[in-house]
Structures are given as C-alpha cells and as structure tokens.
Amino acid sequence: xxxxxxxxxxxxxxxxxxxxxxxxxxxxxxxxxxxxxxxxxxxxxxxxxxxxxxxxxxxxxxxxxxxxxxxxxxxxxxxxxxxxxxxxxxxxxxxxxxxxxxxxxxxxxxxxxxxxxxxxxxxxxxxxxxxxxxxxxxxxxxxxxxxxxxxxxxxxxxxxxxxxxxxxxxxxxxxxxxxxxxxxxxxxxxxxxxxxxxxxxxxxxxxxxxxxxxxxxxxxxxxxxxxxxxxxxxxxxxxxxxxxxxxxxxxxxxxxxxxxxxxxxxxxxxxxxxxxxxxxxxxxxxxxxxxxxxxxxxxxxxxxxxxxx
Length: 309
Prior knowledge:
Strand content: 35-45%
Distance between the termini: 18 Å
Number of strands: 25
Helix content: under 10%
Structural class: mainly beta
CATH topology of the largest domain: Beta-galactosidase, Chain A, domain 5
Number of helices: 1
Largest sheet: 8 strands, antiparallel
Radius of gyration: 19 Å
Order of helices and strands: EEEEEEEEEEEEEEEEEEEEEEEHEE
C-alpha cells in the first residue's frame, strides 16, 4: 500500500507492507523519516521532539536542520571545494546538496519514485523505492551526469537509527581495522583501531560493537579502512524481533562508516550507519587516500540499499 500522509507539518508518502511502515518526505531531502516494525511497534529512525520540521536553506548547516531519519549525503559530507575542471573551486555544500532540496515524486503501481537535480553541479539523482519482500524495503539509486566531464563525488547513506543499551553491531568478518574521523575521546583524526576494541575518554579499552548507556557521553565516527567483500551491517537489538540489516552492493558502494553517539552530541542516543562510495567525509581527502568514486561524462552510476527487518 502507498498513501499520502503528513509527517509533522510536511507532506509525506507512506509505503506499508504487513511487516513495515516506511514514511518518506519529498520536501526536503526525499528522506526516509520513519521506519516502524509493525509487529513490535519499534521506530528505528531517530526522531526529534519538535512539532514543526526544522528546515534549512540550501547550503545551510545540516546540524541545525531536523537531523534525523535517513538522508542522502551527496556529493560530499564536509564542506570543501571541488578539485577538477570545469568546476574547480566550486564550493560543495555542507553535508551535500540534496538533503535540503525538494525532490520531485511520483507513485508508480507499488513503488515510489523520487528525483532531484543538482544546483552547483549538473547531475540528476533518482530513487525508486519498493518492497522486495514483506520485511524488506529496497531503494534503487540512479545518478545521471548531465555534463561532458567526469564528476567525482561522495555518496553516503546517513541512517540515523535509535539504539538501546546492549544493542550489538555486526559487520562483515573482513572489517578488521577502523580509522577515527571524529571523536570526543582521547584520540584524534586518523587514529587506527583493531575492531571492535576502541578507547574511551579515559583511555580505557572498550568494545565498540556493543552500545553502552547514554550516560557514557561517548561520540565516535569511524570508517573501516578496507573495501568490503560483502556489503552489510546489522543491528541486533535486545528484542530479537527488532533486528535490522542494511545491505548494499560493494561494486559501487565499497565502504562502511559508523557514528556511535552515546549521549556525546546534542543529548542524543543513536547510531549512524553510513554505506558510502568513499570515506573521510570529503571526496578530496578520500582521494589523498586513493579512494575515488566518479560518474563518467554523460554517464550513469547505480547502486541500491536494502533494509530488512
């Protein structure tokens, strides 16, 4: 079932199966605002308590926006300048362009189609959303380069998910090493860890694959340094009926980032799962580490995300 609805003060589209209720907002961001397990009533997506949705203008500060649910970070996360001609020196907006823009939408049989065009760069990003199974929702992405030059970019799925103490984070066996990008602990950018053993603010070792209490006031963002052989990340909640798995194709989305926020930022208790085309939050920095994702001149780049309860 697909139906129009309202999320706070925003128009929304609800996709519903026997197992899942998924709610998308076309304006802004074409985002997945809510994802509910109908059997347990559990809301996976981080919600904000404000009654009115927090908008930001184009190129505004992402952290001053609603900052919840699942947004697309494209073509960067951190603000930076594009490196290559013909757009050399053009500023890439904070957390990318598309989270703050209105997306066009259409409903086609049992799927929702969303699309948006670039502002500072000539691309079109489209999503086709549908249930692959009663407990699995799939999002097919198509990036079209409407120029005669190659376009280098970063895409990351920014899934802000609720957690509970004791929730376990499962990743593929080849995820052995992680690199810190942001932290309020003792470390710094570039610090390497042997997953899942990290250090807290006091310098003591702890397991990063188990969610601690919000009272820990921890905050750590990291990427696994290797290209994945199998693209997935799973959250195992204390209630086994709430287990959530995110899958993605390593041919086009080869990396995985995680941000664990145990009360350390904005009094929130959540985890961000970020399947991504390159790491380090900026395409220029990623390039320094030998990571480049690009859509060729007049070409297309495709990937997908599957969310399974």
